[in-house]
Design brief:
Largest sheet: 9 strands, antiparallel
Shape: rod-shaped
Distance between the termini: 126 Å
Number of helices: 5
Helix content: 25-40%
Structural class: alpha+beta
Order of helices and strands: HHEEEEEHEEEEHEHE
Length: 262
Amino acid sequence: MQSPEASTAVSPTQIQLTLLAVADEVVGTLAHLVVYVGALALFAILALAALGQLPDLRSDGPADKPSWSTADRSHPRFAVSRNDSSDKTASYTILRHPEGGRRDVLRWTDMADKPVAELEIYRQGAEFDVTRPAAAGLAAQMGLGADAPLEQAGLIDTKFGPVALLRPVGAAEGTRACLGYLKRYEEPGLQISGFSCQGDSWPARRAAIACTLNRLTLLASGNEPRLAELFAHAELRRRGCAPQGSPDWLLGAANPQLRGAL
C-alpha cells in the first residue's frame, strides 16, 4: 500500500504544465492589453487629427461670389457730347463682371469737383438677377443711402422712348435734390440709368436728363448686333436739346402713375 505522502505527491511534469498554462494566460492577457492600448492610442491620434482640422473647417465659409472690377484695358463703347461749358470733361469708368456683365459709367462734375450728373449703361450678363427691383441701387448711385426710398416722378420722352424718372421721397419743388432716371430693355439685356442735379427746378433737371440721353451715342457695339440695332433705331428719333420746361413730358411730376415694368 502507498503512503499518504506518496498519493499527494505532485510530479515535476505536472508543475511544469501548470506553469506553462499560467504563462500562456499571462501572455494572452498582455497581448490583449497591448491591442487595447494600441486601439486607444489610434483613437486618440484620430481625435487629435480631427481637432486639428476644426479651425480650418470653421473658417471654410461660403465661397465668395465673383464681384465687379475695373477694366482699365477695355475701350469705351459710348459717348455723350456736352454743350455746357461749366461741366468738366466726363470721367469714364468701365466695370466688368466674371459672369459677363459690363458697366460703362460716365460722370460729370462742376468746377468744385462736385458730382452733377451720372450716366450708366449696364450690359447684363449671367450675373443679372431678374428678381432684383429695377430701381435697386439707384439711390446709392444718386449719392443717397442704399436704402433711401425713391418715388416716381413721371416720364420723359427721349430718342430711346419713354424713360422713367425717380426722386427722393418727399423732395419738394425748388430743392437741390437730384433727379434719377431709368430705362431697361429685355432684349438686348440692357439698362440705362443715372441722375442729374443740374438746374434749379424739376423741369430743368428733366430737360438736362433728356438732353443727355438724346446725345448718347454708340462708339462700338462689341460684336453685339442687337445693341447696334437698338442705337441705330434710336438715332432715327434723335432730337436737339429741348428748352427747359418744354411740354415733352408724357406724365408730369404731379401725376407720376407709371404703367408696367420699368
